[in-house]
Structure formats: C-alpha cells, structure tokens
Amino acid sequence: MSRTVTIEPVTRIEGHARITLQLGDAGEVEDAKFHLTQFRGFEKFCEGRPYREMPALTARTCGICPVSHVLASNKACDHLLSVSIPPTGEKLRRIINLAQLTQSHALSFFHLSSPDLLLGWDSDPVSRNIFGVMRQDPALAKDGIRLRQIGQTIIETLGGKKIHPTWVVPGGVSEPLTQEKRDAMLKLIPEGLEIAKRTYAFFKTLVPKFKDEANHFGSQPTMFLSLVSPKGHLEHYDGFLRLKDAQGRILEDMVPPHEYERLIGEAVEDFSYMKFPYYKPHGYPNGIYRVGPLARLNNVDACGTPYADVALAEFHMLQESGPIASSFHYHYARLVEIIYALEMMERLLKDPTILDARVRARARSNRYEGIGVAEAPRGILMHHYRIDDEGLITWVNLIIATGHNNLAMNQSIRQVADAYVDGNNLQEGMLNRVEAVIRCFDPCLSCASHAFGEMPLAIELKDATGRVVDTLRRG
Questions:
Q1: Weakest-pLDDT range from 25-39, 268-282, 318-332
Q2: CB within 8 Å of 358: residues ≥ 6 apart
C-alpha cells in the first residue's frame, strides 16, 4: 500500500511551506511536491494606489530582502518617469543593494545552513540550529553574526533604518552621502572582508566531505538566468539578461530587462500558491531554469574584483566542464558573492564622485508602463506596473526570485528523496536532507507566495490511495 510523507513546516527557511512525498507499495518515492500554502495578493491590493507609493508598499512583501523590492520598484518608477539616474545616485543604490546581499547571504549560510554542514544531517534536530553552531564552533557563529551586522549597518547608514528604508526614491536617492557616513562605512569593510575570506577558506575544506550531497542535491540539468554587465561581468543592479543552457551555451544574451516577457512565461499548479515561471521558447515545464548566486556565477565571464575573481576560478573547478550543476554549490557561490560585494562596496565608496550632491532626477510620469529588474540575493526580481492618466496603478506583476526557482526546487526534492528516503524505514535525517536541498536555494516564501502569517513547513507521506499515513511537522 502506498503512503504519503508530509514534512511540515520546512524549517530554517524564510517562509512557510510543506513537502509531500508519495511512496509506492514497495516504499520507493513515486512523486514529490513543494507546496506554498498561503496567499497574500500584493498585485491586486496595490491597484488604485499612486505609483509613487509602490516602493514602500511592495517593500512590505518581505522583511528579509526589502531593499531588493525597493530597488526593483523604484527602477520601475524610473521607467515611468523616463529619467536617467544621476551617476552618483546609481552608485549609492548599488552600495545599498550589495550591503543587503552581504547580510542576506550571511543569514542563509551561517544561521540557516551551517547547522547541517557543521553538526551533520542526522544530528539531534533540537540542537541543529545557530545555537548548536555556537556551542560547536563559537568563532564561526560569531563571524556570521558580525558579518550580517556589517551589512545591516551599511543599510542603516545609507537608508536611515535596517528594514524597509525609504531613502531610495523614484529618480535616484533622497539625499547625498556625507563624508562622515562614507568614512564610517569604509571602516567596516576590511573586517567584513577578512571574515568573508576566512569563511570561504573554511568552507572549501568542507566541500570534499559532501560529495554525495553534491551529486544528489538538485544536480539535474537546467538553464541559468541572470543579469550580466555589458562586459559579461557579475551584475546585481542593472545590465542585461543572459540565459545559458545546461551545457554552457548562451541561448539569450544582452537582452534588455524590459523585454523579459519575450523570454519568461508563468504557469500555475493547483498544489501551490507560488507561480512557475519558465523559458517560453522551450515551453512548460521543459523551460526550467535556475536563478540566484549559482546562476549568476555560471553565467558571468568574470566578477570584476580581485579576490572574487580568484574564488570564481576555484568555483569553476568544482566540476570538470560546463556550468556547475549541483544546487548544493549555491552555498559556495553565496560565499564568493559576499567577497565580491565587500570588494565592490569599498571600490564604490572610494570613488571620487561618491559625495556628489546630484543624486536625484525629478519628473512626472511620462509613460503608462514601467518595468524594473534587479538581482535580489536569491535571484532576479522583476516589478512591472501599468498606470492611468492620474498616475494610479491599474495592473501589477511581480516575478520573485524564489518563484523562478520553483520548477527546479520541485525537481530537486524528488532527486533527494529518490536518493535518501526509504519509505520502509523512515528516519528524521532522511527528511532533513529533503529540507536541506530547499535551503540550498535560500527561498524567500513570503515574497514568492505573498503569504500572510507564519512560515512553517511540513513533509507528508501518502499511500497509493493518497491517504496521509505519516507527517513530520515543525515550527
């Protein structure tokens, strides 16, 4: 008799979700699904609001990556205004985006994923958390907390507060940078960079211990989508769309972000409130692709900063050829990007024009449609608005980074379940590996589902008739 395993809630992720594993008569995994069970509907309740409210409204989608929404939303408003941002305003926007990437990646690696890597997949779930890491390796835990603090402090210095800053506005930023604030931020960079390099060196020693997980954690062939600079370098704020296939061939390149609808379609399924974006030319669901740090490093020709470029070269040595396929290596890519972010913030803060007073362009709306695209820590983020003659929102579409990865996450839990779950001898460590592959993607489910309330996760075990025979639930 077949059974269904339910894991609910999925733990150490940003948001609530449930995983169901359908087992056959012999206990083998027949199907696996990742469910987002809650709904918020940001696109609908923004209708009728003035477009200038959109950055503040959509930032409330998330408390982890509000800066990403503020930037994508303001870029959509820039498009509505038809203005060019003053160069210094753009540099300041880049700095706050990189500060958020630093704190968010630190949260993902140190707080959410390092307990598995340091304490083991089968360790006691009661201690498999950041407090367990503090007991096992206090220095590593301290580094994680400090690195995240550095990123948040830079956000607060620029934006006035750590969460939901309103300093980025349509046309640029609301006020220029002072020398005092510039010097205060520059003092933080060397310490952050030392922590990032130390953690990267430590993680490289761990990677050989997880060869089996690297082989089974979401290593299915997919395409990769990200922004790149005009030179093909790592880009988080602007640039062009690049899409590579699983063999590393460039399928789309230097596509202006406002042409995203030519590439990206969106499907829905009845088991989740998260959308399923796909590459239109390949259709649904064959148009599966991944976004985020793994995709960004697979797509770029170079990072463009000294130490990050060395780390990028080492990243490509994880595999003999082609794009790095395993989603386990999202962790590796995340650490490379932290190094890049700190190096690039230092470069921008030392730019002789960074204290320029011209940081904002002003205009009224000059278009009926605006599109803003930026790289959030978890991947590419798209805001698309339409307005009427009064400047009121008539239509909104948000394609969230985590949503882009939805197809890949569903395939990944099936791959991990096939490799590790024995329905005749179900153990907690097996189910933790199923959760862990989701954590590799660092999903932000509040953004992706626009869900209200709490964010737990569950795994269900069902029999052949669909009857739930076992459930693992946390949170």
A1: 25-39
A2: 86, 88, 89, 176
Strand partners, 112: none
65 annotated binding-site participant: yes
Q: What is the pLDDT of residues 149-185, one digit of tens each?
A: 999 999 999 999 888 888 999 999 999 999 999 999 9
Please check if 398 is assigned to a binding site.
yes
Q: Give the whole-angstrom CA distance, residue 239 versus residue 141.
A: 35
pLDDT for residue 447: 64
Q: Identify which of 111, 116, 75 has the alpha carbon closest to the alpha carbon of residue 93.
A: 75
CATH superfamily of 39-419: Cytochrome-c3 Hydrogenase, chain B (1.10.645.10)
Q: pTM score, two decimals? A: 0.91
* Interior/surface letters 379-416, b for 16+ CB within 10 angstroms, e for the rest: bbbbbbbbbeeeeebeebebbbbbbbbbbbbbbbbbbb
If you ran DSSP here, which 8-state letter would residue 278 be given?
A: E
Going from N- to C-terminal start, the domains of the chain cover 39-419
- Asked whether the predicted pLDDT for residue 282 surpasses 50, the reply is yes
CA triple 471-268-108, angle to 5 deg: 60
77 assigned ligand-binding residue: no
